[in-house]
Amino acid sequence: MKIVIPDDYQDCVRTLDVFRKLEGQDVTIHNDTLTDLDALAERFRDAEALVLIRERTPITAELLARLPNLRVISQTGGGAAHVDMDACRRQGVTVMAGTGSPHAAAELTWGLVMAAMRHIPQEFENLKAGRWQRTLGTGLKGRTLGIFGYGKIGQLMARYGQAFGMNVLVWGREGTRARAAEAGLDVAGSKEALFERSDVLSLHLRLNAETRGIVTAEDLARMKPTALLVNTSRAPLIEAGALEAALRAGRPGQAAVDVFDEEPVTHHPLLELPNFLATPHLGYVEKDSYELYFGDAFDNLLAFAAGRPVTNLAE
Description:
Layout lengths: L1 E4 L20 E4 L7 H7 L5 E4 L8 H4 L7 E4 L9 H7 L2 E4 L5 H15 L2 H9 L15 E5 L3 H12 L3 E5 L2 H9 L3 E2 L3 H7 L2 E4 L13 H5 L6 E4 L10 H8 L4 E4 L18 E3 L8 H19 L10
Parallel strand pairs: 1-2, 1-3, 3-4, 4-5, 6-7, 6-9, 7-8, 9-10, 10-11, 11-12
Helix pairs in contact: 4-6
Family: Belongs to the D-isomer specific 2-hydroxyacid dehydrogenase family.
Protein name: D-2-hydroxyacid dehydrogenase family protein
GO molecular function, one term: oxidoreductase activity, acting on the CH-OH group of donors, NAD or NADP as acceptor
């Protein structure tokens, strides 16, 4: 089977233990992301199968129409919102997804919290430049960790916060609030209260039509000038342009993110702000996660090739 794996930025897929599952297959790996339709169609022209790394390349109806050889898409992780399911159904393309793990993303999120609150990146740069102790960080004990969304990652974040002596405050849909209350956590009286009370506020929501832009400029303006906003979920959860304006206005005092509206990023106005910390969407980019994600994706692909029953998301 002719398999194409795009968007392997680190050229690491071939180094994974699970890559040996594809021995005997015709595998092509690309280490960059293309956005031009003609270039993508040319790159995928001969592919019978695509193994997609999360949401890095959208699979649109226009692209699918130019891929007559494509039979199957095997997605790493559990989500496939970037794939046009209706177009796959019309074209007879099977779409399969696997499982994921919340741990790598939660660990990265907590790393951003620590780095931002204690100004670790700035002090490292100061140290390299011969400047000693130039900032005054903020500790976490006794402060309030706000969690917007209490799924698997949000639950891990709550436990991390408790381990650091923080007061955990949760908000989300009715089911989210009920689960948090059952776990003995404080539930905010409203979304407004969550933003007003949090010293660190971390977003853990799925991006969909209901949550797109759910964090508004008004929400951010309610945050303390000493507060930190953390977003390792999806950039469009925040109203377009609102975060940059809020950071310039000083409410919240700083932000740390792992996600951007368009990726990969080479230039972005947020990167110029002194109260902004970012990583290049590293939440799930960790060896154990990759072994899990790609192991599932390759197993699904081989099951499809062998004619064994698979779950087709496009049905």
